[in-house]
User: Fold this.
Amino acid sequence: MLYSGQFTNNTFDNRITQLFGIQYPIVQAGMIWAAGWRLASAVSNAGAFGIIGAGSMYPEVLREHIQKCKAATTKPFGVNLPLLYPDIDKHIQVIIEERVPIVLTSAGNPKTWTSKLKAYGITVVHVVSSAKFAKKSEDAGVDAVVAEGFEAGGHNGREETTTLVLIPAVREAVKIPVIAAGGIATGRAMFAMMSLGAEAVQMGTRFVCSPEASSHPAFKEAVVNSNEGDTILTLKKLTPVRLIKNHFYQQVQEAENKGANNEELEALLGRARAKKGMFEGNLEEGELEIGQVSGSIHEIKPAAQIVADVWNEFKATAEKPFTY
Assistant:
């Protein structure tokens, strides 16, 4: 066996499925403007792990999504929380008060909040883009890490390490479970990541293209109509982010080519640029964050169908991995 875990009837048993209390080692990413309670509950009800993306929510909006998710599923779900966002202490308080069982933190130092969350019995997972930060996260006391490669959508690591290279490096660096992310949308890709030492996979782009995702229908159509090479990692001076190429991206590229400083790039980015693109559907002036794997996604499917398709393909590949 190349991967850590074992099949039991129609489930998979390993450290991540035990830690999260889920049937399949499949995690839905907490994408901003896409990962609300409808998507999280649909993924969890399908046997995977759904996540509410708090990055685009005020604290009271987050509370509403958590409560609605609780009403829509009896299965485990979590919250993704970027640590550098304003009002982070208010978000933390909402999570504690609502007794969210699992929190995935990102974009910040895991030492800051991990001990407080764990003091309330919350499982903490941190998102990293390098083996060095995976080790620091382990030292900070997190229960697992999401190792996210260069292919991923949204905000990305400055190291530009691909998922194929990152997973074995992180697996070697830490003893805690590793969840692979970046460029994963199929059961075959899941099998590859599990073979490299991951104990689960996290998918964002694949779940954006579902009816339950709260992103704008025009953005979903832009994703399924995208081709290989239509995304690019940009804004590396400020905060690296992978975008679909559009008019906004062209403005960013022109500014960077002219040597724009951080203040000028921040002014160009303005406020709510991501909301304008992904939630309001302005495909030219908005920020369209998505992963490289978008070029291989050609249809919008219900979240439950996505989970079933990925799981069934993974299982078939594991049983007969070299059949094409």
In short: The chain has a mean pLDDT of 93. The longest helix spans residues 303-319. The chain has two domains: 6-214+296-319, 221-294. The longest strand covers residues 77-82.
